[in-house]
Design a protein that fits this description.
The protein is an alpha+beta fold and 406 residues long. The chain has 13 helices and five strands.
Length: 406
């Protein structure tokens, strides 16, 4: 549930290009798309609370029948008929349907229905009760409408609608009774004042909640933009501008991490050093723009070939590349080195001044170490570099390896 809520909040960043705003002067409604999501999020939040409140109301409503009997004695039958054959079934149905997920779409309607069930049935009871007992029912009626408007988390528009209808029905039922009992008019005026104060409280509460919601959206948007900026900055810092693969700085960082991991777990860490053959001659004959394009194509070829999770292809400098290969021994690293030679030659990049082929080729040096006491990561780099030197000295367009000294 928490993940879904967070996802909803993130989705709001895309509403109106992230310009979350109110749609009216009272600050009680957002723009349409934002309003839909606001209602969905808070309905999801309030559904369990409303269900628990309905359960408490249903139990209290049923148990209050004992008070009916105590106050009315033998004349309780009509009141019980309203309480147990009208009010109780409606509240029970509302409680039953409140357990379903679709109720979130109609939560405010459910709240209004619950309040009306309480106040209308109580008004009917008031019309049937005579004597001094009527004042107790009127007091409970006042408590119901005040609690219904303030404790149910009802939205202001629904609260205003509920309050208006309540005052209408209360006036219809109570005004004729005021001719007999003057206190009835007092209760009616008290209801009116109480309803206005409750509406003011609901308005203030909803305005505060909406402002907090909007503030949360804006904070999420700023955090989202900050994360994107950090990711972009990290890409600029860690990636080589020409090839868009890892740069030397990031290579050093990952090598340190993989060296420690291999040392901790006791497995081999391998490295390939790759150098484009006769690259200076390539630049001299075709120019630096073609040279840059050549480096880019070789980098893409290496990344396409080296695809295990944890492997890293980096531009080590100029026309030289380095590849970190966790959990490979020197034999496995040399096999991959041979595949690198074949793959780059297979790209078919024309090289008019190469002494080994008509296309661009590479020489690859392979080395591997199981990190132990006495070895350092610079030893692995030196061994791979030495293997590359051997491959170049033996005629280029080939691989060589260096065995860990005993």
């Amino acid at each position: 549930m928490a993940e879904e809520k967070e996802q909803d909040i993130t989705d709001l960043l895309h509403v109106d290009g992230g310009n979350a705003s109110f749609a009216n002067a009272f600050h009680l409604r957002f723009n349409d798309a934002l309003e839909v999501r606001y209602k969905r999020i808070y309905a999801r939040r309030d559904r369990r609370y409303v269900r628990a409140l309905l359960l408490v109301l249903l139990i209290s409503y049923v148990l209050y029948g004992a008070c009916d009997w105590y106050l009315l004695g033998g004349g309780v039958a009509p009141v019980w008929a309203i309480r147990y054959f009208v009010g109780t079934p409606i509240l029970a149905l509302l409680l039953f349907f409140s357990k379903t997920r679709w109720v979130e779409r109609f939560l405010q309607v459910f709240i209004v229905a619950g309040i009306f069930t309480l106040v209308i049935t109580t008004l009917l009871m008031v019309s049937l009760v005579g004597g001094e007992s009527v004042h107790l029912y009127l007091s409970s009626l006042l408590a119901m409408i005040m609690g219904g408007l303030t404790a149910t988390r009802i939205q202001f528009s629904y609260a205003a609608f509920t309050a208006s209808l309540y005052m209408l029905f209360a006036s219809i039922v109570l005004l004729p009774m005021a001719q007999i009992n003057a206190l009835i008019m007092y209760y009616l005026l008290l209801d009116f004042v109480a309803v206005l104060l409750c509406l003011l409280a609901v308005f203030t509460y909803e305005k505060m909640i909406r402002r907090e919601f909007l503030q949360k959206i804006l904070i999420q948007r700023k955090n989202h933009e900050l994360r994107k900026a950090n990711e972009k900055l990290k890409t600029l810092v860690d990636n080589d501008a020409l090839t868009n693969i890892a740069n030397r700085r990031y290579f050093d960082q990952i090598l340190e991490q993989e060296w420690r991991r291999a040392k901790r777990r006791g497995y081999s860490l391998a490295m390939l050093m790759v150098d484009i053959d006769y690259f200076k001659a390539f630049n001299d004959s075709l120019g630096h723009l073609e040279g840059d394009r050549c480096i880019q194509q070789v980098a893409q070829g290496l990344e396409a070939l080296v695809r295990r999770p944890g492997d890293l292809v980096a531009r080590y400098g100029g026309e030289e590349f380095a590849i970190i290969l966790p959990a490979l021994n020197v034999d496995e690293a040399e096999k991959l080195a041979q595949a690198v030679c074949g793959a780059i030659q297979g790209l078919g990049i024309a090289h008019p001044n190469s002494s080994v082929a008509r296309v661009v080729t590479v020489s690859v040096g392979a080395a591997a170490i199981v990190p132990t006491t006495g070895f350092f990561k610079r030893d692995l780099i030196a061994m791979a570099d030495e293997a590359l030197y051997l491959a170049k000295s033996q005629g280029r367009n080939r691989t060589a390896r260096v065995i860990v000294p005993q």
